[in-house]
């Protein structure tokens, strides 16, 4: 039995003695003194648990300090030479010190992943493919694989590792892990293998990483209304490999009704994980 438990028992015993008219062995002041320390110990324990949880939440993704120009240029070259553009998965953004904070007082950029996961319909896009309706559509189209494993469905409902060009059947766990996140961060922001690390540094917003270099990394400039509209339209209207054609509609797929401005207004109300005020300021400017 812990010391705190013994203290509580002792206090209860003293209270009983006082009510029954017996002479208490402890002064009333001592009782309050012990109660105070019980509450204090409980608060300290809870605070320690919170700190431990945050320590194990993942690696720190706070902005890295700037370095000298020669080292910065070397870092740029290293990131741009990392090979083909690949997805890293939504988990690469989910650290509590990155975009996955659960603190209501955290800045919006620190809550982006959390908002997407909890409120954004895009996060459920893959799960839609496991529904009875999706299975019926796949059967009517006579697809070789179920909807949740068919490229014709996954091209819009997920962000597969190979960049929307996967085999008809997903046979490895890696691809399944990526697609099960639905339309996750990189589906809109671009494959992160080349830009994940530099976008954490102060240099990312400097002239060192200009628009041209950011484009080379595969990072999508969603601050641009044109690029954002093109990114949304590639699924919600259609593009190469993502065509909701007459066959799909006849099989039961909903028609794609999309108007960018109305869509963004509705999306902002449901799951805005970016600064809408800054958006408006840019458009007004």
If you had to describe this structure to a student in words, what would you say it looks like?
- The protein has 285 residues and is mainly α.
- It folds into 2 domains: 3-55; 85-284, Flavocytochrome C3, Chain A, domain 2, CATH 1.10.1130.
- The chain has 14 helices and no strands.
- It starts with a helix and ends with a helix.
- Mean pLDDT is 76; it is low at 50-68 and 162-171.
Helix content: 40-55%
Number of strands: 0
End-to-end gap: 67 Å
**H and E order:** HHHHHHHHHHHHHH
Shape: globular
Strand coverage percent: under 5%
The name of the CATH architecture of the largest domain is Orthogonal Bundle
CATH class of the largest domain: Mainly Alpha
What class, by secondary structure content?
mainly alpha
Number of domains: 2
List strands and helices in order, with pairings.
Layout: H1 3-19, H2 28-55, H3 69-80, H4 112-119, H5 125-128, H6 132-140, H7 151-157, H8 173-179, H9 185-189, H10 211-217, H11 225-236, H12 246-251, H13 260-271, H14 276-284
Helix pairs in contact: 1-2
Short overview:
The protein is mostly helical and 285 residues long. It is built from 14 helices and no strands. 50% of the residues lie in helices and 0% in strands.
Notable characteristics:
14 helices; 2 domains; mainly alpha; 285 residues
């Amino acid at each position: 039995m812990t010391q705190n438990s013994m203290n509580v028992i002792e206090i209860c015993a003293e209270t009983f003695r006082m009510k029954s008219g017996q002479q208490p062995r402890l002064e009333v002041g001592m009782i309050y003194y012990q109660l105070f320390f019980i509450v204090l110990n409980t608060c300290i324990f809870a605070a320690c648990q919170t700190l431990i949880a945050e320590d194990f939440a993942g690696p720190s993704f706070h902005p890295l300090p700037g370095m000298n120009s020669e080292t910065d240029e070397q870092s740029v070259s290293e990131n741009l030479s990392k090979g083909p553009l690949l997805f890293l998965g939504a988990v690469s953004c989910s650290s509590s010190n990155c975009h996955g904070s659960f603190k209501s007082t955290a800045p919006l950029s620190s809550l982006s992943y959390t908002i997407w996961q909890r409120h954004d319909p895009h996060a459920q896009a893959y799960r839609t493919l496991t529904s009875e309706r999706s299975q019926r559509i796949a059967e009517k189209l006579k697809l070789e694989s179920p909807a949740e494993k068919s490229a014709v469905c996954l091209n819009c409902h997920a962000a597969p590792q190979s960049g929307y060009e996967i085999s008809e059947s997903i046979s490895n766990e890696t691809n399944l892990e990526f697609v099960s996140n639905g339309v996750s961060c990189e589906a809109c922001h671009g494959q992160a293998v080349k830009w994940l690390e530099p976008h954490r540094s102060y240099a990312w917003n400097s002239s060192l990483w200009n628009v041209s270099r950011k484009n080379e990394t595969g990072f999508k400039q969603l601050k641009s209304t044109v690029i954002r509209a093109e990114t949304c339209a590639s699924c919600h209207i259609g593009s190469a490999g993502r065509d909701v054609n007459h066959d799909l509609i006849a099989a039961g797929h909903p028609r794609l009704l999309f108007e960018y401005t109305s869509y963004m207004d509705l999306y902002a109300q449901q799951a805005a994980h970016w600064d809408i005020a800054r958006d408006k300021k840019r458009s007004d400017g």
